[in-house]
Amino acid sequence: MVPEWLIAKPDVQQAGSLARELSLAPATALVLVGRGLSEPDAVARFLDPRLATLRTPDTMAGFSRAVDRLARAVRSREPIGVFGDYDVDGITTAALLTSFLRACGATVHVRIARRDAGYGFGVGDAEVFAAAGCPVVITGDCGTSDHDAVAAARARGIDVIIVDHHQVPEGETAAHALINPHQPGCAFPFKGLCSAGVGFYLAAALRTRLRAEGHFSGPEPDPRAWLDLVALGTIADLAPLVDENRILVSAGLRVLAQRRRPGLAVLMERVQMTRVPTAFDVGFRLGPRLNAPGRLGDAEPALRLLLAEDFAHANAAADECEVANAKRQEIQQRVLEEAIAAVEAGQGGQAALLVAGQGWHPGVVGIVAAKLVERYSRPAAVLAGDGKGAYRGSVRGIPGFHAQRALVACSDHLVRYGGHEGAAGLTVTADRLDALRDAWERAANESLAGGGAPRQLAVDAEVGLDTIDERVADEIARLGPFGIGNPEPVLAAHGRTERTRVVGEHHLQLTLAGGRQAIAFRMAGRDPGGGANVRLAFVPEIDEFRGQRRLRLRVRDFAAAT
Q: Up-side HSE of residue 394: CA atoms within 13 Å toward CB?
């Protein structure tokens, strides 16, 4: 499906003034102005995200109570339990809190949820921590909805501290402290933190408290050393890369580039990552490998990878992650093909898609849902039957559609559900599946005012091709990290092809008038040939090969022009 172009028209006069004030290229200034950044001071801060500008967590509900309890546990040498969900955010949160607390001198027992045991913190997990003698347990990326397990822990004398970011259901929690920016009464202004981000704030505040109490007799742990894990969790969980997240991820990518953590150093070597890592690298190269074990059942290898203190253990854990990832890819492709066939056969719905299948692996349904969204530009729910009368699945949304709220509208038909705006999960019994389809369609129609939106490509500005050079590419890169909430800037320009050729079977390389090089991935079938007038939507970037830098236009779309 060829996308429609939505071309912004930034104020040229404002952009010119900004370009002169900050010595920016005109194209860069147009992008910034079009995104609402026209004041020089605000732009300067945006281009130089600093940890010092993070807002303090004092206004987070439950935060001071959590710090108090953890400080007492560390000082008193109480064993501390840490429990994380099985996805990357849960695993990185667990790894961050576990290794940081150990660096503070605490004894930590850590567990990761198993997909085959169900999402989140369970009653059985509470019993394991009680048997281990943990009077304090921290849950990461779960716990907000796990009322039964938290109550069971409390009944066994355990103080549960919940570190989470999922939507908060009705009902009181038995937790000692709930730290979740979405809970009522939480005055922290930024609601987009993932659990790893919340965990970082908790670690930093705990270090400050322990320092003030004279706990450290030697070197103190520096929470900034754990920002690589925060970047991983934030990007992989599709959290918006704005405000605090932009600052945390920018710093975290720099830490990741230093390869301090053996497990991540090994993983980066496995994927042949030689450049400074980007959000794309984390989201599409590192994240899937860390997610793979948990998708197929046991996320323990990914946790061991992040906690490995030497390269021998790191390599062993990386081997397990790679094997799991290869298996995940094979399973995912089969389920995706069957899901597409169901949609094409008219079984999916209209305003929003819902497909279900027996024998589908529940660990890949989230990825398949995301692929369906990409293909059909509609919200998608993909459900896997368990062979026992129930279906478990994942939802992925589109702009203007809130996945978790849509499930609230369908809640009469669901056994369980939870999530946030971009993604959610659900469980439904087989006898309610048809009723859920109808409710899901109604929820989508109400949310999207009558149906799915056409696929659209947002273009930040139209420019002259001759104004794009290496300077522009470097400046555009400084607007990153790119992701949800801060998409990669796309420019549009007219040009003429001198010659074209297909590379790697599926990709199209274009040499434009003036010698500029462009690459259009997966567009080999649209070759216009040499001497064609084209209109390009592209991202200017620096291509580095064998130590040489050159400007390249990465084409997002193109069309014939007169």
A: 20
